[in-house]
Amino acid sequence: KLLGPPPPPQKEGAGDANSTDCRLAFSGVVCQLLFMVLLIIAITLGNLVSLLVFFCVRQFRTPQSYLKASLALADLAVGLIVVPYSVYQETNTLAHGRMEQEESPAGWSVCLITGPIFAGCTFVSISTIFLLSVERTITVLKPLHRKAVITKRRIIWLILGSWILSFSLAVIPLLSVPNITFEYNPCSKMCNYGFPQDKLPASNWDVIAAIYW
């Protein structure tokens, strides 16, 4: 019986479907860090200018400007809270060759704070862009009825509703799916929904729910 050449040795972790190696060379990591720092500066300055114009110039407080201010606030939260934590994690990995899940004195993982903020602000941005599209559509198709339909009071209520609904959607998986949590993902550079290695779900529906959220 003829035998073919032995199969090449499998790298450590190659057989694990859940293991993902996203490590880059030193220069690549440094370039990523510089890009993220520039991103923080751009997000902060751009959205701060938008909010300052909205609050300081009374003529710009139109219904559309309220929606733009809501969008700027969501982006600013990501730029001041979420991205800096990613920079910290990448810097820590670069300096010490390992990744740490920083915890507060109460024992909560920082990802349990930045994760819902990132997810909630993402939902806020999506819903606000949708509301801006609806507002523009009404303005174009019903220009004579625009002021009667699109009022500041209604816009403010819609903005409050979008923030409440968005952050509720961000927190629902933590409350409804057993053992699900937020973990820092070195590939996406963000805190994503996931399961601890020692508490993998027994039901496939829990995995589908985590992927969906």
UniProtKB/TrEMBL annotation:
GO terms for cellular component: plasma membrane. InterPro entries: GPCR_Rhodpsn (IPR000276), GPCR_Rhodpsn_7TM (IPR017452), TAAR (IPR050569). Keywords: Cell membrane, G-protein coupled receptor, Membrane, Receptor, Transducer, Transmembrane, Transmembrane helix. Residues 46-213 form the G-protein coupled receptors family 1 profile domain. It comes from Naja naja (Indian cobra). The lineage of its organism: Eukaryota, Metazoa, Chordata, Craniata, Vertebrata. Its main location: membrane. GO terms for molecular function: trace-amine receptor activity. It is a multi-pass membrane protein. It is found in: Cell membrane. This is G-protein coupled receptors family 1 profile domain-containing protein. Pfam families: 7tm_1. PANTHER family: HISTAMINE RECEPTOR-RELATED G-PROTEIN COUPLED RECEPTOR, TRACE AMINE-ASSOCIATED RECEPTOR 5. The chain crosses the membrane at residues 33-57, 69-87, 107-134, 155-175.
